[in-house]
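Re: How this chain folds, sequence and tokenised backbone to follow
How to read it: Take the token row as a discrete description of the fold.
Start of record: The labelled sequence and token lines come straight after this line.
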Amino acid sequence: MSFWDTHSPLEFEDEFKEVKLKVAHPLRHTFKLEVDAKLLGRLMTMSQNRGENISTLLRGWIEERLAAEEKRERKRITGDTESP
């Protein structure tokens, strides 16, 4: 059993000190994506089948596609036609 299992932070409220934090940039960004009802339904079905929320599903797809596109772009820039 830990100390905090038997105590509350409120017991020490008089010992609290105010701190100020600066965050260089937001840790996450949110953007709006408009989709029609049919696409939303398909996304909901897919996310439910995989047991994850739509945001997690889309973030994974975006990361996968972005990595593939970046690889393709590097090949285009370097002229590498040998790599698959």
Q: What stands out?
A: Residues 11 and 41 are 49 Å apart (CA to CA).
